[in-house]
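Agenda item 2: iron/sulfur cluster complex prediction
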Amino acid sequence: MGADMGAGIDADMGTQAPFHAITPFTMLDFPDLCACILWVAGCNMRCGYCHNPQIVLGKGTIGEAEAIAFLQRRVGLLDGVVLSGGEATTWPGLVGFAARVKAMGFAAKLDTNGLRPDVVMRLLEGRLVDRIALDYKAPPARFRQVTATTAYSRFSATLELLCGQSDVPFEVRTTVHTGLLDEGDILWIARDLAARGYSGRYAVQRAVTNRDRPTLGCMAPEERSLDIARLEAESPIALAVR
Ligand code: SF4
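Presented output:
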């Protein structure tokens, strides 16, 4: 687990190349669409189980012009663009870039940890995203332990925005390492989602830990698995356990 980063880590990304990498084709990350993934370098969290420390801690090597040139070659071949990371909302150029993506005719999906409700609001107001995947990292009592930030209120504002004012489809998901979260935490989140009126499926996915590929916090593999039967019996909303 990284050091406590206070309310969040907002790196200065104004001048550096924003992208760590481009995945040219995926059928898995944008439901029902053929898409590419643009991985924005940098993140405002430090999750111990993060299996992309090179994206979180490294600098981008692909500039905006190079990414646009790639997309121009994919017009008519791909349906969508996934803006992922790291944390895409930490890049000051994200809103303008999303506008360029949409102007080229692509659908756009944002993967976010929710710490920048202001950026999500601008994307929604500009109708610049067609889908959002929101990571609900942990209940408030565990948020700092999992993310090394104390910014649950900012995440909560993003969730409120999506549940209340937006007609953009979104999915909530939690990555679970049982050394950090237990069944009670997952059920707390499920009840919170139900109370906020979330009507989608709640995706619960296992953290990837592999001794040959250290995570950001060098976490050991899980010592036990989640009790899926208990989660499915007690959750007030539909779960999708992956
Ligand atoms: S897992 Fe955590 S640290 Fe890694 S990219 Fe996602 S939000 Fe950032």
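Discussion summary: The two ends are 24 Å apart (CA to CA).
Owner for follow-up: CH.
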